[in-house]
Amino acid sequence: MGPGGACWRGGGAGARRWLSSRAPAPRVCVVGSGPAGFYTAQHLLKHHDLAQVDIYEKLPVPFGLVRFGVAPDHPEVKSYGAEDNRILGIPGENLPGVYSARAFVGWYNGLPENRDLNPDLSCETALILGHGNVALDIARILLSPLDLLRKTDITDCSLAALACSKVKRVWLAGRRGPLQVAFTIKELREMINLPGTQPVLNPADFTGLENAVKDAPRPRKRLTELMIKTALQKPGEVAAQAAAARQWGLKFQRSPQEVLPTADGRRARGVRMALTRLEGSGESAKAIPTGDVEELECGLVLSSIGYRSLPLDPAVPFDTQRGIIPNSMGRVEGAPGLYCSGWVKRGPTGVIITTMNDSFDTAQSVLEDLRGGMLDVSVSREGFGAVGSILRSRGVRPVSFSDWEKIDAAEVARGKAAGKPREKIVDPQEMLQLIGH
Ligand code: NAP
After folding, report:
1. Which atom of ligand 1 is nearest to the CA of 80?
2. Contact 319, 325 (CB under 8 A)
3. Nearest-CA neighbor of 197 among 159, 239, 234?
4. What are the tens digits of pLDDT across the range 148-187?
5. Among 203, 240, 350, 382, which lies 20 to 30 A Cα-Cα from 341?
6. pTM of the model
7. CATH fourth-level superfamily of 5-65+314-398
8. How many Å apart are CA 410 and CA 424, to the nearest integer?
9. Whose CA is nearest to atom 3 of ligand 1?
């Protein structure tokens, strides 16, 4: 029903105080059932005795990108959301063989809209554009031994496609340097230790960085030290990498300029990268093209340069530049009673804990506004009662939480047979049939 993150209207604007115990219970509508929606609802319910919260979701299954975004082999961090991706804006971006990370992640996680992506994995070299955690997630899924993936809730059809994959080399290219990578140490370490794969890092990329990073914040320092240590390792030095059939590596200071077509123009055969130099230092260093270019041969290109939220409704303000709803502490600017949380509030960065804290902040704004009399809750509102009758009048049968529990049980039962936590149903029609709709 809404973009990544959540949006809801809690009563109309007004100045009457909500204090009297005779006042009706405030009805809060949360749009979007991802982590931002659930954490906000949780905080409201915990800190307001009377609040009633309805959560709406456009899909028949809840949890947003907890279900559809996080890598299947990372069940402990299931997080993050937004419905679109940034585009590269370069020639060839739409050639067959080029996929957005969002679509690729949605495909292996069973997001209905991406279930037919059917990515072509018949080439040996894949290039991932971007140095974030999503880029590492994808590299890991492409190179993981099947036995590891089989035990996760990855969809059966993507598992079958990965079983036939010819991809054995994955490059991750970033436009800036090792000191500006956006991924984090846990995810990098996991990649380095992936059985049967060999990291290929060029020691020359790290010259002098040990010194440069001496006074950097600890996470950046440790991350850089791990890259340096890995770059200096000799092939086969790490037991898990001995006789590795697959490789992955980081390429720095390369900005994508054009996706190159095969001679018949039918698909991607590589990417022309503009070499860059860094202007400034640290996190804010800028990548400036040097004028030199390099062609990188690859049959699969995955653009992992960040997610993007989409506007919810023409009536809701939206900053298209930044891909967020303009807000102050979650209060949507110019729309009293409307609040936002999650990636649509602050942009597509951060892990589950960031979204949790951010959602609690938004819920806190709602609570302050209720207590300060900024929201008119003097009139009883029907909440889902009203929405439900509109939906019925349009012939729409909503899926309730107990309906979801039936879908959940069916998925878990199907997964059990295959030794997986669940086998996701990827066809919404099948979900609806299962609950008798
Ligand atoms: P991200 O962390 O923002 O990384 C995006 C990458 O794309 C950066 O390397 C960025 O480089 C690059 N980029 C952006 N625009 C570009 C352009 N026009 N051309 C070339 N490169 C470009 O985004 P993400 O990987 O999508 O992750 C989103 C959030 O989810 C992050 O906070 C991430 O940590 C989190 N996440 C966490 C986990 C986990 O906890 N395991 C897993 C997945 C995602 P610049 O720095 O130069 O802009």
Report:
1. 30
2. yes
3. 239
4. 999 999 999 999 999 999 999 999 999 999 999 999 999 9
5. 382
6. 0.89
7. NAD(P)-binding Rossmann-like Domain (3.40.50.720)
8. 9
9. 306
Q: Please identify which residue in the block is written with the tokens 């679509």.
A: 103
CATH 3.50.50.60 positions along the chain are 87-305
Asked if residues 315 and 54 have their Cβ atoms less than 8 Å apart, the reply is no
Residue of the CA atom closest to atom 4 of ligand 1: 132
Question: Distance between CA 30 and CA 28 in Å, rounded?
Answer: 6
Residue 370 Cα distances to 11, 81, 363, 395, angstroms? 9, 28, 11, 35
Residue of 70, 104, 175, 357 with the most ligand 1 atoms within 8 Å of its CB, for mutation? 175
How do residues 192-235 score in pLDDT, each as one tens digit? Answer: 999 999 999 999 999 999 999 999 999 999 999 999 999 998 76
For 150, the enclosing helix (H) or strand (E) is helix 146-150
The length of the chain, given as a count of residues: 437
CA–CA separation, 359 vs 66, rounded Å? 15
CA of 145 to the centre of ligand 1 (A): 25
Torsion of CA 339, 341, 345, 349, to 10 degrees: 180
Distance 302 CA to ligand 1 centre (A): 13
What CATH code is assigned to 87-305? 3.50.50.60
Residue ID of nearest Cα to ligand 1 atom 28: 349
**What is the residue-wise DSSP string for 322-355?**
TTB--EETTEETT-TTEEEETHHHH-S---HHHH
